[in-house]
Write a structure and sequence with these properties.
Elements lengths: L4 H9 L7 H16 L3 H17 L5 H8 L2
Helix pairs in contact: 2-3
Length: 71
Amino acid sequence: MKITPQQTEKLLKGNHKFSQLGFSLLLTRLKGVYTKTPTPETLKACNVEMNAFLGKFQSIMSADYAIIAKL
């Protein structure tokens, strides 16, 4: 599953809870980066990093995909 830049922005601006600690930590770090520099380039970099994580750990992220898909 790949997420869109719009979904990435909603994740970065929202307050969603995820069952996977690794994804929660990634999201917290990327929120800080995006808050400091809210540019389209930063959003694209965050989107690429999130998609890389989701692709690598898709087998354990199934429960959290349901939350992301609703965005």
